[in-house]
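Researcher: Re-running this chain for the archive, since the previous output was lost when a drive failed. Same request as before.
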Amino acid sequence: MIDFLNPMHTSWQVWILTFLCAYIVGLSKSGLKGGTMMVIPALAYMYGGKLSVGILLPFLLMGDGMALLFYSKSSQLKYLLKLLPWALVGIVIAVYIGNNISDRQFKYSIGATIFFCWILLVVNEFRRTKLNPSGVLFGGILGISGGFATMIGNAAGPIFNMYLLTFRLPKESFISTGAWFFILLNSIKVPLHIYSWETMNWQTLHLNLVMMPALVLGAFNGKYIVGLIPDKVYRYLIYTIIFIAACMLFI
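Model: Regenerated structure tokens:
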């Protein structure tokens, strides 16, 4: 029974923290965007930078599935079309780089990417003239950066959040459109993690399965909480969580 519940044979402190991470992913994906950015450095600390990415990926797919279960009718898929090709280019670049850097450099790459995205988010929030999200240059930069960040550390949330926030979408559309985008990208990444980086295997998938109840509970709690938060406060909450998560990676 113990082997079933703890397939990675970690300490029970690590097991409990992983359970909490799964819960936070559920919260984040169903509404409290930005929470996943706290999970990234936590898992990187417990399992190592590269392996943690493979452990987190199935959690993200489960979480996005829950988000679509709640909000799929509000999706605005037209906003994905211009960004997706550029994101695929970013993934290819990240696969090459990820095979040629150390674990510490891997974690620092995630942190630097998150900081870059956070700066873009904050600058765009307080500019009088907002960035044009429909422009080829803007979309290309965000798309490549997002593809790189999602492959190198499942950290593209801040970039794509910035893209959607510029359209001032309602919360439900913001959440469900992002869920579609990441389900597409993360599904493409699965074979790369299995065969190229070898960061996903039966043992890590077993861990994901054990942690699923925490993720589902977090998803339902997140759906309830997000309905209580005003739109402007919601955006500022995202910015704060992203900044804290990036600092944690460097610490």
